[in-house]
Amino acid sequence: MDEGTQLSSPFSTGAGGANFENGIQTAFVVLMLTGGFAPCLPAFPITKVKLQGRYAGFQTDDCIVFVQERAGERRAKLLAQIKHSLSFTERDETFAEVIQAAWLDFNNAELFDRRTDMIAVVTGPLAATDIENVRTILEWARHSETAQDFVTKVELAQFSSAGKRAKLQAFRAQLREANKGVDVSNEQLWQFLKSFHVLGYDLDVASGVTLSLLKSHIGQFAADDASDLWASVAKEVGSFNQSAGTITIETLSEELRSAFTRRAQPEMIPTEFLKAAHQQPPSSAGHALPAEYENAIAFASIIGAWNDKVQGDAEVIRKLITGT
């Protein structure tokens, strides 16, 4: 190795940031396809996901998630900036970039509704001090009655901590820079922090919890090839991303739409769990089912799907039906 050569992070040199961004964008599209909900917003269906929305005026532009009430007119959106890592300090350049974009969007009434919309920085694993302090003060802001109520909580020595006060000062300093060198008032600070979220996703590792949960969503439609379907969605999302596209159910390929059209059927109760005297349920035409079959069908409708090859699942079902 040459004297002047320095090793770089394999995550950065191996397109880790781009892969992480693609994973987050894909996560929101999977939630849209499977009937899931977006974080930070009301539990309304996701109607579209806009990628690289700077052309449309958004500064927090990596991913804008739109939701709408199923049987009504209420709408909301989440503006997400995706950064694999950052530090919530006065000097961190990535944090400064995030706050600059968020502050511009927060004050753009044509694009951002402070009553319903939210802004988030989506990141990878957070430092322990950020989990403890940053997320706490953001929750305090959302649960405070007034700006003064919020600031008092953070400044009280016995209620708060030096770490929380340092993080709030970092937000003040970054907002001052974003506000062209002018300090923001306590009211402005409080209103902004109420709309600002920090979301941690472990999609930077293949064994992460987030990916497992997302594949569980996909598994409702493709029980045997959830990983392949995840990869197909990610590939299509990447194509939309490079074109600053907007993803809706209708703009996705027919192949993907059809894959999420019908939910996988749950397995039926194995016959060995039914009482030996009646290995096959009698015909129900014109007759009521015996009590043991009524119970079996009732339990099946409540429980949904299980795996009869897994001993734990089989034992639970047997106990529910036989009572022993």
| Uncertain residue segments | none
Helical residue percent band: 40-55%
**How many runs of DSSP E, i.e. beta strands?**
6
With strands numbered from the N-terminus, the spatial order across the biggest sheet is 5-4-3-2-1-6
Summarize the helix and strand pattern as letters: HHEEEHEHHHHEHHEHHH
Computed over alpha carbons, the radius of gyration is: 25 Å
**What is the SS-derived class?**
alpha/beta
N- to C-terminal separation? 69 Å
Mean pLDDT: 85
For the biggest sheet, the summary is: 6 strands, mixed
Overall shape: it is globular
**Helix run count:** 12
The portion of residues forming beta strands comes to 5-15%
Would you mind describing this structure in some detail?
The protein has helices at 10-13, 16-34, 93-106, 128-142, 147-155, 162-178, 186-195, 209-219, 226-242, 254-259, 291-303, 311-322; strands at 46-51, 63-68, 75-82, 118-123, 196-200, 246-247. By secondary structure, it is α/β, with parallel strands linked by helices. Helix 3 (93-106) links the parallel strand 3 and strand 4 (118-123). The longest helix has 19 residues, at 16-34. It is globular and about 65 Å long.
